[in-house]
Amino acid sequence: MEYRVEDLAAAAGVRVDTVRFYQGKGLLPAPRREGRVALYGESHLERLQRIRELLAAGFKLVQIGRLLQAEERAGAAAASAQAAAAAEEPLLAALAAESVGEGSLTLAELAARSGLPEPLLRAARSAGLFEPVVVGGEERFGSADLDLARSALALLDAGFPLDELLQLAVQHAGGVRAVADAAIDLFDEHVIAGRLDEAGAADEIADAFRSLLPQVTRMVALHFQRTLLNRALERLRARGDAGPLEQAIAASESVRLDVSWKRA
């Protein structure tokens, strides 16, 4: 279905000048033209509805522009992942099942159980903070995503500003992807190494993945916590304010992060 600008504005519940304003800001793609008539499609309507959701969640237009770009990249990545799954279906099916577990959640279910609004979860997913697994054409979230959402809610309740927390998540996600890609290269070179055509190799590779994943997860989490503590102490000592944090660390039974691996 195609819309003239006034019809699109009415369908989206916005003003005509708002449509043109978003288009001028690069938030809305240019329409198709027939002569002097501008025609918009369903994708334009979906984009306007998405912008309204993000505005309602408290995001500014600059932040919304970044999130929309991230969603486009995520869509391209999902298409690439589906193509890869067709070539390596046995292994990827096993890894997907391990990632989300039998009790996987839809986005709506994740919102209900975590206490975070669904539009905010969509924004966090677009920022790369959540990494759902596509199962049967549907995004599914596991227990790790639920724990992550609850942790994010605790940070918001502690007074962290939403926009700055999300920007930090975007920065973190970019670095994590780079490290993860390098780790996958190592796994591919030293574990897979062209074995997918061997009988039973997919199950063996999936078992190796299950065994190594919690070890890598714990190593990365512990390193991050240790770095966070040391950097915080360095900054506070430079200001002469490290006393309370040092006392808190000393009073703790252990400053090591208790990282466990459990299925959903």
SSE blueprint and pairings:
Elements: H1 5-12, H2 16-24, E1 32-34, E2 37-39, H3 42-56, H4 61-87, H5 89-100, H6 107-114, H7 118-126, E3 133-135, E4 138-140, H8 143-157, H9 162-192, H10 201-239, H11 243-251
Antiparallel strand pairs: 1-2, 3-4
Helix pairs in contact: 1-3, 4-5, 5-10, 6-8
How would you sum up this structure, described in words?
This protein has 2 domains: 1-56, Multidrug-efflux Transporter Regulator, Chain: A, Domain 2; 57-251, no CATH class. Mean pLDDT is 76; it is low at 83-102. The chain is mainly alpha-helical and 264 residues long. The protein has helices at residues 5-12, 16-24, 42-56, 61-87, 89-100, 107-114, 118-126, 143-157, 162-192, 201-239, 243-251, and strands at 32-34, 37-39, 133-135, 138-140. It has 11 helices and 4 strands, in the order ααββαααααββαααα. The radius of gyration is 23 Å and the shape is globular. A hairpin with a 2-residue loop joins strand 3 (133-135) and strand 4. It has a two-stranded antiparallel ribbon. It has a two-stranded antiparallel ribbon with strand order 3-4.
Question: What's a concise summary of this model?
Answer:
By secondary structure, this protein is mainly alpha-helical. The chain contains eleven helices and four strands. The longest helix has 39 residues, at 201-239.
